[in-house]
Amino acid sequence: MAALMLGIAFAANAQPRAIGGRIGALGTEVSYQHSLGSNFIEANFGVDYWGRPGVKAAALYNFVFARPAWTARGSWGLYAGPGLTLGYVDDLVSQTVKGTSIQGPDGSLIVVPDTKVKGLHYGFMMALTGQIGLEYTFWFPLQLSVDIRPYIGLHIAGDGNGTGFYDNGLFGFIPTVSARYRF
After folding, report:
1. In 71-84, which positions are buried (b, 16+ CB within 10 angstroms) versus exposed (e)?
2. Residues 137, 182: Cα–Cα separation, whole Å
3. Is the pTM higher than 0.85?
4. What is the pLDDT of residue 36?
5. Does 27 reside within a domain?
6. What is the mean pLDDT of the chain?
7. How confident is the model at residue 158 (pLDDT cuts 50, 70, 90)?
8. Domain of 42, in residue numbers
9. Which of 51, 64, 40 is nearest to 132 (CA)?
10. Does pLDDT of 30 surpass 60?
11. What is the dihedral of CA 148, 149, 152, 154, to 10 degrees?
């Protein structure tokens, strides 16, 4: 059992890894990649600064589907994969404002019905995400990449006053740039 655990530890340690940052329209993240054969897993944690600041964490499994030989030194990679994102962010949610009855100037009763309004609220978001990108790993330990990562999910207001579609997730179609130290 000890030999098996030691073998797994050495195999995991032998896989290439990369750590760095990712910046885009939605925020700034710390990014970690761990290779699994020709594919890799990616974990990100960062600040969502669309509207008011929030935090998000994402985990993705990326398939490297092409390694074009565009340059004599370094390596290129085209990748895509699914993932899950969780966070506490500010977003628009629909909420129902309860109607009321008020007395008019002539003494009559005026009934104001329930109305739906949209407003910005902090809350929890959970989204499925997909990523597609292009990376270049230099012959020295630097990796640069550009990708798009839209989110499709729900946003639940923290005060319990509404739910909605995570509107900011569609801004993930704006390209994001990453720089990582590869080791």
Report:
1. eeeeeebebebebe
2. 8
3. no
4. 92
5. yes
6. 86
7. confident
8. 18-182
9. 64
10. yes
11. -130
